[in-house]
């Protein structure tokens, strides 16, 4: 009897696993403060997340440099920058670790006000590499900004 | 024997998982995010509200704050608080308020859910595009098992609380803007500038029926202190207002610690009425709601002398 119940339980769990994690979700959004002109920014600093072991800050910095910005990165913020870039990366495990969600926010260094923010969310079956996630988020931010 | 035990354990695990983990995600509502407390300023301007960065609630991503619900909650809060003269649509106001949600951090699992919200609040004068406010507002709210035993409901309450606090802080930041007040004085002219503006809130202030409904929507859990007219029954109690018109009272020092009942806001009479089942304290009946300071309130019995005092977070 326990064997039959175990089989039923496993079947139920399999059904739940299939219906709740088996589909791919892709979501990418960006929002810009309408009064902000990202083109007027020249120098940015990417603030490294203390728990980031994947050097996401370096990927963001490289991508911003390729768009013509002077970019520094690391834990300490230089005194004269036009914007500070922060990010939050969320990871999940499904056979291997993958980046589930990346949020990048470009902030006013004076008061942390979010000048622009973008977010990409891809579940396991639609997973992207960290470089692709960074590219997608920044691409959407600048697309929204009309640059 | 072993089979019975196995079955019970399995059933317990399934029920625990269903209650704690799943449940359908329900979206936060504009009513629950509404801030009903009156503003300390009333600006003689119209304002339009834009919200961005919100996400729709879905079964896969769980409860979220949508742009539409946040916009409606902010607009209703401005109307209820009388911070601006009016709220208009399509950027046709004197000022434009833009709120961008940049973070909504939600826990995955736990008995208490703490949700953190970050939003950028920007207020722009439409006529000359002057930015009079740019501020990042961070808020957090914790919902416990006392608030809801079902995880999805607890998550919704935590999100609504974080959003409500964010709106309250944002409106307070606008109320504290010197630039807007100076503009307001200048437009009223030198004579008007010399006298206190009509915006100043004076206490005590009896809340209207609409204000009462908005107030209890903003503060669903109230720590009440005592009933003045019955000194022998001054035990503090917690009043919890559910969205379905039911209320619960938790009073550890009372003979009956837990009680439930119903609550109705009579808008036309500007009264809130309680009907408690099987307990005499607090008294059943209708009350006027009087605000005695920015954070202090009194429920004054209509036709009986009970007074219930409580304070809310600013």
Task: Report the major sheet of chain A.
Answer: 6 strands, mixed
Count of beta strands of chain A: 6
Oligomeric organization of the protein chains: heterodimer
- For the record, the count of structural domains of chain B works out to 2
Beginning-to-end CA distance, first to last residue of chain B: 58 Å
What is the count of DSSP helices of chain A, taking H or I runs of 4+ residues? 3
Order of helices and strands of chain A: HEEHEEEEH
| Full CATH superfamily name of the largest domain in chain B | ABC-type transport auxiliary lipoprotein component
Q: Please state the structural category of chain A.
A: alpha/beta
Distance between the termini of chain A: 66 Å
Q: Classify the fold: give the CATH topology of chain A.
A: Double Stranded RNA Binding Domain
Number of domain modules of chain A = 1
Radius of gyration of chain A: 20 Å
Q: What CATH architecture label of chain A applies?
A: 2-Layer Sandwich
Residue windows where pLDDT falls under 50 for at least 5 positions of chain B:
18-22, 191-199
Series of H and E elements of chain B: HHEHEEEEHHEHEEEEEEEE
Strand content of chain B: 25-35%
Question: What would you note in describing this structure?
Answer:
- The complex is a heterodimer of chains A (147) and B (314).
- Chain A has 147 residues and is α/β, with parallel strands linked by helices.
- Chain A has a single domain (24-144), classed as Double Stranded RNA Binding Domain (2-Layer Sandwich), CATH 3.30.160.670.
- Chain A has a 6-stranded mixed beta sheet with strand order 1-6-5-4-2-3, with helices on one face.
- Chain A has 3 helices and 6 strands, in the order αββαββββα.
- Chain B has 314 residues and is an alpha+beta fold.
- Chain B has helices spanning 2-20, 30-33, 67-81, 151-175, 178-194, 209-218, and strands spanning 43-52, 84-88, 95-105, 113-125, 130-143, 205-206, 221-227, 237-241, 246-250, 258-266, 271-276, 285-291, 296-301, 307-311.
- In chain B, the strands form 2 sheets. An 8-stranded antiparallel barrel of chain B has the order 7-8-9-10-11-12-13-14. In chain B, strands 2-1-3-4-5 form a 5-stranded mixed beta sheet, with helices on both faces.
- In chain B, helix 3 (67-81) packs across helix 4.
- The longest helix of chain B has 25 residues, at 151-175.
- Chain B is flat.
- The termini of chain B are far apart.
- The model of chain B is unreliable at 18-22 and 191-199 (pLDDT under 50).
- The chains are: A alpha/beta (147), B alpha+beta (314).
